[in-house]
Amino acid sequence: MYFHWSYSGVPIVFEGWVVYSPGLYAFSILMVFAICLFSEYWASYRHSLNNPITSETQPLINGTKKTFKQQYNTFLSSHYWKTIVHVIQYAINYFIMLVVMSFNAGLAFAVLGGIGVGYFMFGRRRVIIEEELCH
């Protein structure tokens, strides 16, 4: 396989995503760019959930100390949401990978541009946790 610029009748990711005109190709490039922007926003949001400076980590409720059960329920409810957010982020990222693996050069540049602009816009809010540096 090799990268190509053609769009006429070539399926991009799915069998139903076939572009036959320059306008639809440009629209596809813009949509991929927007999806990559959203991916970077979502990654920053996911990292912000792990920020240790949140109201959920404070052990006090109205000036009284939380019981173990209250702390566990708070952790469990937040952990469910973090798990859902994590799965959504990786589903979006795998879709982006499929777009690049369609070997369409215009879409590959849209992915790179969207990820770059998205990181520039949303990356400064990320909190790096050491346990997540492996992926």
UniProtKB/TrEMBL annotation:
<keyword id="KW-0472">Membrane</keyword>
<keyword id="KW-0187">Copper transport</keyword>
<keyword id="KW-1133">Transmembrane helix</keyword>
<dbReference type="InterPro" id="IPR007274">
    <property type="entry name" value="Cop_transporter"/>
</dbReference>
<dbReference type="Pfam" id="PF04145">
    <property type="entry name" value="Ctr"/>
</dbReference>
<dbReference type="GO" id="GO:0016020">
    <property type="term" value="C:membrane"/>
</dbReference>
<protein>
    <recommendedName>
        <fullName>Copper transport protein</fullName>
    </recommendedName>
</protein>
<keyword id="KW-0813">Transport</keyword>
<keyword id="KW-0812">Transmembrane</keyword>
<dbReference type="GO" id="GO:0005375">
    <property type="term" value="F:copper ion transmembrane transporter activity"/>
</dbReference>
<keyword id="KW-0186">Copper</keyword>
<comment type="similarity">
    <text>Belongs to the copper transporter (Ctr) (TC 1.A.56) family. SLC31A subfamily.</text>
</comment>
<feature type="transmembrane region" description="Helical">
    <location>
        <begin position="24"/>
        <end position="43"/>
    </location>
</feature>
<keyword id="KW-0406">Ion transport</keyword>
